[in-house]
Specification:
The chain is of the alpha/beta class. It has 2 domains: 40-373 and 445-479, 3-Layer(aba) Sandwich (Alkaline Phosphatase, subunit A); 389-439, no CATH class. Helices cover 30% and strands 16% of the residues. It contains 15 helices and 17 strands. The protein has helices spanning 2-15, 18-34, 56-69, 102-111, 142-148, 164-167, 186-190, 196-202, 244-252, 263-267, 300-311, 327-332, 336-356, 471-479, 498-514, and strands at residues 45-51, 86-91, 152-160, 209-213, 257-260, 276-280, 318-324, 362-368, 371-372, 374-376, 404-409, 414-415, 418-419, 436-439, 445-446, 450-455, 465-467. It has a 10-stranded mixed beta sheet with strand order 5-6-4-3-7-1-8-16-2-17, sandwiched between helices. The chain is globular. The termini are far apart. Residues 497-515 have low confidence and may be disordered. The active site is at 102 (phosphoserine intermediate). InterPro entries: Alkaline_phosphatase (IPR001952), Alkaline_phosphatase_AS (IPR018299), Alkaline_phosphatase_core_sf (IPR017850). It catalyses: a phosphate monoester + H2O = an alcohol + phosphate. This is Alkaline phosphatase.
Length: 515
């Protein structure tokens, strides 16, 4: 567009002047100097945003996309998460996997303990799919610690509510795929293992806000879905005949409990009259944001908005887990456009949460569970559409290539024994599968460290390169929940570094006396 060309020309003109860069850097320096006074308040509220599969290349590409959606060049744009003052790296490996999965990583960043791939809410002593290794190896999550401390708690996700990331907040399962008893082997059910949907209702029965997809795992087998009554694959799956949604409705109806399954119902709620909310918008995962029916399905931002309005009523504060869960799905399918639009939407939700809370009493952390073998490069020019071509042809096969490529995945394609010529297809289409080096039905996770963005009370403790399971320990320490409570001096409201500082003061006094 002409506006875009004008913007690019203006950008490049001012960027030719060294004063532009020097003044920008000086402004950044002044902001950094303001951060020397650390925020040592007590975190009344904790918000944890998890971009599933949102590795650093995904963050960078989402930044460019966000800017380009506003008619800008994109590279100089700032995501909401990039405005956070503290950034560190998390090592994502599972106890038995160099390249992690979402279940073992969720156990790390929610329960504070590294675990085996495929398991949720159990320690590494538990063996995947082996029911008899569950008992005695359960580990509690920060959501549970917050609930025990009297805080309100919520889970918001764009996936099934029983999916790997949310389930580690409330379930203890040696198999992440045991969504309902229908997905479990008979022996596991007989041995007393519980499916994840059932654990959602039974383990921590008073979770204040639950929002996402996954209706079918809550309903009796073959019961038709409320939204898609004629689509068999959306029917209920439960073999035990239980209707967990109805059970929840019956249990909470006298406690300002509300169940909703579409956007209209959600947005017509008055949060001041809602203490408990169960909102399940799809039989399985929610739809990609690019394909979302904006009349019937809420965006992640809209869900986060309602969740915070309900949770913040508690004078003791709240813990909220928010998952942008389908960034991962887009990448697995080789559909970078779907993945990046999901990441941009999660960033909008981060912006909304920022407007509704204060850094003085709310610690917000944004991170990913793992990365993907997604990359973009090829010496593209400034302002090149993120979904566009590299500016040159390959000097080996003389064909064009997109900037975005995958190390492996479904986008591997040969035409007459050679690499497909991408200029013959619509590579900017929503579901275009970017070319991959190795053919796989599903693209894989990546093994590199992921970024951890933090702001609010004691956010500076998320620094350096740390193990992923360190994250909930910092969040718990900042809000005086879980195992770290000794430092919370009564009535001071500041957990901070008081014990450390006082011991240093004592040491200095002793040294002075001795000298």
């Amino acid at each position: 567009s002409s506006a875009y060309v004008t913007c690019l020309l203006l950008c490049t003109e001012q960027e030719k002047d060294p004063r532009f860069w020097n003044s920008w850097a000086q402004k950044t320096l002044n902001n950094a100097l303001m951060l020397q006074t650390l925020n040592q308040n007590k975190a009344k509220n904790l918000i944890f945003f998890l971009g599933d599969g949102m590795g650093v290349p995904t963050v960078t590409a989402a930044r460019i996309l966000k800017g380009q959606l506003k008619g800008q060049s994109g590279e100089e744009t700032q995501l909401e998460m990039e405005k956070f003052p503290f950034v560190s790296l998390a090592k994502t490996y599972n106890t038995n996997a160099q390249v992690a999965d979402s279940a073992g990583t969720a156990t790390a960043f929610l329960c504070g303990v590294k675990a085996n791939e495929g398991t949720v809410g159990v320690s590494a002593a538990a063996v995947r799919s082996q029911c008899n290794t569950t008992q005695g190896n359960e580990v509690k999550s920060i959501l549970s610690w917050a609930k025990d401390a009297g805080k309100s708690v919520g889970i918001v996700t764009t996936t099934r509510i029983t999916h790997a990331t949310p389930s580690a907040a409330y379930a203890h399962s040696v198999e992440r795929d045991w969504y309902s008893d229908n997905e479990m082997p008979a022996e596991a059910v007989q041995a007393g293992c519980k499916d994840i949907a059932r654990q959602l209702m039974e383990n921590i029965p008073n979770i204040d806000v639950i929002m996402g997809g996954g209706r079918k795992y809550m309903s009796p087998k073959n019961q038709s879905d409320v939204e898609y009554p004629d689509v068999a694959k959306h029917n209920g799956t439960r073999k035990d005949g239980r209707n967990l949604v109805q059970e929840w409705i019956d249990r909470t109806k006298d406690q300002k409990g509300h169940y909703v399954w579409n956007k209209t119902q959600l947005l017509s709620l008055n949060p001041s009259n809602v203490d408990y909310l169960l909102a399940l918008f799809e039989p399985g995962d929610m739809t990609y944001d690019l394909e979302r029916n904006t009349e019937t399905d809420p965006s992640l931002t809209e869900m986060v908005d309602v969740a915070i309005k309900i949770l913040k009523k508690n004078p003791k504060g709240f813990y909220l887990l928010v998952e942008g869960g389908r960034i991962d799905h887009g990448h697995h399918e080789g559909k970078a456009k779907q993945a990046l639009y999901e990441a941009v939407e999660m960033d909008r939700a981060i912006g909304r949460a920022d407007l509704m809370t204060s850094i003085h009493d709310t610690l917000t952390v944004v991170t990913a569970d793992h990365s993907h073998v997604f990359s973009f490069g090829g010496y593209t020019v400034r302002g090149n559409t993120i979904f566009g071509l590299a500016p040159m042809l390959s000097d080996v096969d003389q064909k064009p290539f997109t900037a975005i490529l995958y190390g492996n995945g479904p986008g591997y394609k040969l035409v007459n024994g050679v690499r497909e010529n991408v200029s013959t297809v619509d590579y900017q289409e929503n579901n275009y599968q970017a070319q991959a080096a190795v053919p796989l039905t599903m693209e894989t996770h990546g093994g590199e460290d992921v970024a951890v963005f933090a702001k609010g009370p004691l956010a500076h403790l998320l620094h350096g390169v740390q193990e992923q399971n360190y994250i909930p320990h910092v969040m718990a320490y900042a809000s005086c929940i879980g195992q770290n409570r000794e430092h919370c001096s009564k009535g001071s409201g500041a957990p901070g570094l008081r014990p450390v500082l006082s011991s240093i003061a004592t040491l200095l006094t002793v040294i002075l006396i001795l000298c």
